[in-house]
Amino acid sequence: MAGDPQAIPRYRIAPSPTGFFHVGGARTALFNWALARREGGRFVLRIEDTDQARDRPQWTTGIIEALAWLGISSDDPTFEGPYFQSANAAAHVAAAERLFAAGHAYYCDLTPEQVQERSTSSGRPGYDGYSRERDLAPGPGRVLRFRVPDGTTIVRDRIRGDVTFEHAAIEDFVLLRGNGRPMFLLANVVDDIEMGITHVVRGEEHLPNAPKQQLMWSALGHGPPMWAHVPVLVNEQRKKLSKRRDKVALEQYRDEGFLAAAMVNYLMTLGWAPAGDTEIVPWAQIEEEFRIEDVTHSPGYFDVKKLAAFNGEYVRALPVDEFVDACRPWLPAHYDLDTFTAIAPLVQTRVVTLAEAPGLVDFLFLDEPQIDEAAWSKAMGPEWAGPLLDAAIDAYGAASWDTDTLKVELERIGAEHGQKLGKAQAPVRVAVTGRTVGPPLFESLELLGRERTLGRLRAARAKLAEPAPMP
Ligand code: GLU
Q: Does any ligand 1 atom lie closer than 6 A to the CB of residue 48?
């Protein structure tokens, strides 16, 4: 039970299934998960699916899959749920009736327009308590309002310390709508109480709700949960991350080939840092060290560049076979796995996300390279490019086909044309791969094989010999 010191800690997240899973929600989920796991508690997933206009079942599936991707999964005994708020509607109404019976709530028959009119003419914002002493019975169109007592509420927040709310600034808020349906705040509190939630760690946009919720916990006969309101995430302009402006969907990062471990580690460093001088640490260490009290009050900067740097580190740290496996969803069907595996170590050091991997080595899997025109003009521009290609075709026709020999030969040919190896590589690279950048050239040639390399060099030579198109 909540408030019972013997109880195991019960954390929860309570997302609404109204869209993609937001990176901020993912961070909050991870904070809850780290705490629940270390404290031997539970992590409850409750889907708050009571907004009929906006909820969609596919978003619920999306939330569950996104959590599983982060490693928060029902395979772990810490995980409990998912529970669905909509399934508990009878309990929400019953709790409202108890509050009414005990005098903590009262009915009001004013329409929203009348509430607005009274507020405008009195100059005081919100509902003015008009029906407090009118003793109305329930009836169609009548809303049930919570009777906010005089005084103050102190929300003890584990991140912000004590936050004091004057009740004078809190209107008698609605618990049941005129059609009898429960409001979000009521459902949220009743579910938390029924699910024995002891710790509420959630986004700070919910802090203004906390005093109202705490009043309800108390009116329903319970001490409040331990609160922690996690600062918002902001973008480079220090504006709150928004669906419209920023890339916030966790799913999108997953689909672009960010590694879950990198994402998890990065999200945990937004507002918190592990001990020691590196932020790149395994989950086990995070779980051991994370304290909600150490989370900063200031907004967390969701820096996509830093996330990319984390991801690059995680990608490079993978054993090659795991890297190949991780890339598989992004490999086109015509990519031969043995060839990709052979080049993989060279790809692994050069990509930030897995999705970039296939494009870097596409030339190995195409009949002809896709020539980038800008790269072509740059590499084939110098007048020595053609003769150098001729010499390379000659030499590579006879050379032993291994990385070292291919390199030594091109070094020699370059010198004969007055070029260092770096320069001499450019026409060969563009002829064979279509681009000026890519994995190391000679390893690539070795993998591509003599015949295909020579074919591409000859094709490039022929293209170069064509008369320039009329301007
Ligand atoms: N359903 C609310 C939301 O998605 C959660 C409220 C809470 O965590 O208490 O924002």
A: yes
